[in-house]
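Hello Y.,

Per our agreement to keep a running log of every chain we model this quarter, I'm adding this entry. I've kept the format consistent with earlier entries: sequence first, then predicted structure.
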Amino acid sequence: MLINRALISRYSNMSGKGKKSITDFIKEYFKKYPNQNVQHGPVVDWVEDKYVKLYGKKPRDIWRSIRKLHEEGFLIKIKKGVYCYDPEAVVRKHVDDFTKEQKEEILKRDNYKCVICGRGRKEGVELHVDHIQPKYLGGKSIVENGQTLCAQHNFIKKTLKQTETGKKMFIRLYELAKSEGNKKLMQFCADILETYERHGINGHIVWER
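Predicted structure for the entry above:
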């Protein structure tokens, strides 16, 4: 690999200030692919390539820096080795949130399980405390407005209204039951989706039998 020696020398003599860190490179990569589930492998390869070209040496523990960005709230962990950058979530994290005591009370009330899929700590699933009514819609950080979601379902819900999330979930479940020929489950989902239509809720989300 050919490396610009003059460029390396220039950055080698720089103080820490102004020098791009591993974290800076990781953020740059994720900002190119907002709201997408990204495998950590391609991120590591990209950051390493950029870092070597700029500084002439390999960076250390890129994956550890990715994990730290998740812990700081810059990245959402979808599952092991898969992360997502949601610009709106980064902004929202600075808004008032549940206290540690409130989060523990909500988790305990929900038996430390995702209220949607039922998975929890026993299955090694990362759990989040979510606002049922999103903060940007006026949802308050009170226990009654909190629910336990796994990382995957928290990302799916994002800031959608609870009814919108529910309708989309039942549409997906209906299509799955249809593909499997499960008529009983199809009817169950249809009854719920027809209730949405009867009350005129979330009509912008189209459902077809």
